[in-house]
Amino acid sequence: MKAKKKIGISFTATNYKHYIEWFNESDLSNDLELVELSFAINNLEDIQTCDGFVLTGGVDVHPSFYGGNPLYDNMPNSFQKNRDEFETAIFHYSQLMKLPLLGICRGLQLVNVLTGGKLNQDLGNEKNAIHKKNDDSDKFHQAIVKPNTLLHQITNCSSGTINSAHHQSININHLGHNLKINAMADDGNTIEGIEFEDKSNKGFMLCVQWHPERLGVKGEIALSQNIKQTFLTAIRNTNMKKIDIINPATEELITSLNTDTNESLTEKHLLLQDGQTPWKNTPLASRIHIINTFSNLLENEIETLAATLTEEVGKPLQQSRNEVNGARTRIKWLTEHAEQYLSDETMSKVIGMEEKITYEPLGIVCNISAWNYPYLVGTNVFIPALLAGNVVFYKPSEYSTLTGLHIERLLKKAGVPENAFQIAIGAAEVGNILLEMPLDGYFFTGSYKTGQYIYSKVAPKMVACQCELGGKDPLYVADDVADVAAVAAGTADGAFYNNGQSCCSVERIYVHEKVYDSYVESFVKEVQSWKLGKPTEDGVYIGPLSRKEQVSFLEAQVADSVSKGAKILTGGKRLPGKGYYFEPTVLIDVTHDMLVMKEESFGPIIGIMKVKNDEEALTLMQDCEYGLTSAIYTSDKARAEKMMEQLNSGTVYWNCCDRVSAALPWSGRKHSGFGATLSHAGLRAFTKPKGYHLRG
Predict the structure, then answer these.
(1) Which of 200, 259, 337, 506 could form a disulfide with 426 if both were Cys (CB 3.0 to 4.6 A apart)?
(2) What is the pTM (predicted TM-score) of this model?
(3) What amino acid positions are annotated as catalytic residues?
(4) Which CATH number fits domain 273-469+681-688: 3.40.50.720, 3.40.605.10, 3.20.20.70, 3.40.50.970?
């Protein structure tokens, strides 16, 4: 069944039900539905699902939005500035995506303000007698419709009776940019309707000062029903490309989001160009404060954020909470060390000559991020990028887009300007457009195949490019480990946490023959103790895989291994029913002829191989195209360090695994990528060093 198109209606505490009831079942038929867009719950992400919008009436727009006087006659007891900001986002999105917009009463006034116009803050006693509402009763008067306007075309009338419930109006001497008047009140100078002057390359937009949603029998049908039907037709004629967000635990549709177009991405790029210099010139202390505020907002909304993350990627709920908290830990290190590593450095200063280094931002940084840890891998990039004075074009994975929208919302709530952070919504097609844009740096997290493609596309630009790619991370258990059972339990967690969907998950294990049997026995016992099920249930350790196609991929790895002599000790198959579930799988009698020991699995599957000594373990650990992390378990630190020095991977572990620290560089070798995030190297990765030779 084809998804319904959505009409977003901004919430107002004043007669909201009339807007909902105006669009009756016959109007909506089986192809349209209504969505409440509410500043009270700040559901900004739902704006991206809509195909058209109604900006409703209600309390006055805050005077700061148009440079008005803070005090005036008939002003409300309190304003709703958060509503003004929320509906500003609706208006800008409607224009960015060229989607139909109907502004009613306050909605008309807001559109005028947002396009550079001003308001008459109070009509005065004489006009209020005509226009201002009495208690719950609208006033009624005549409106004159101007010829050669969209309103005239829609209504086919030159005048009519309208209802009125306002004490403010558009200032006729301060009409917004590219707006024209399409209707006036019969008092001669109160504007009753506006539309675009130049409608080329614009979506449908009509704004009226009256309330067509409750015009009723006293009003002209043309000034109510005709407007509504034309607006609905405009929505039905939209043709937005959508991206479906699927719950991997149930395979149900969560929502459908509008994807960006070439035009919308170009507009966002222009915004970032305008914002780069102001953000760069924002003092570092202020940027640090904003990012710390963002971290506090993550803490405040952790339950909402974790629930969304679990719903769209299938991560067990507690693991989603852990991820948000982990991001906050990284942010803390980055903000505490930003001044140390981003400030100017004097390298030498002698009589007559000073030498120093400054760290300038790259400019516009493109962050093409991953779905498996959207908060963590995103934090590795957009946080130091913003701290260093860059603006960011952020593309979340299509599998974690709702989380990406939360990140955007909270960054801007924290104080990151609109033109310093923009999000790109979509899949590979959108990513390709970003690769063609004149951006100043590309930072990608994902698969080797995609990273190689991005690198080849970006290379001719000779701009910064870093790729954090996959891994086939090996782990060796030596014969002298003190507690085999404890090591088995800990390394099982390193292999299967987040369903093994981590670039640094343990993907292959080599065990010294002297402890092999006891290790395998304890390992399997640990794996079989885990609860597998819905990620929202308490105690679940293994939820669904995030991507449907990965289930078949793992089945193929198991089949390949078994056909070549491997033995399944536990798991090995998908679960029946809904959801992308695959049993945690342990294979023994594996060899390097099998895909499971050479090809990245990115799922709950592990091969355990017996080795005779350290030399054989080292040879096998190095027998791979990847080089992200490697781990050694032994009681002898010197023994471990001797082996770790020979391992060609960006990170090495002794008696631990699957671990990331913000203080240490996170980097890959070979097919695991290049460049570094985190640590001082990760902060400076987003800068261009400039050397100063100062004589005098």
Answers:
(1) 259
(2) 0.94
(3) 468, 503
(4) 3.40.605.10
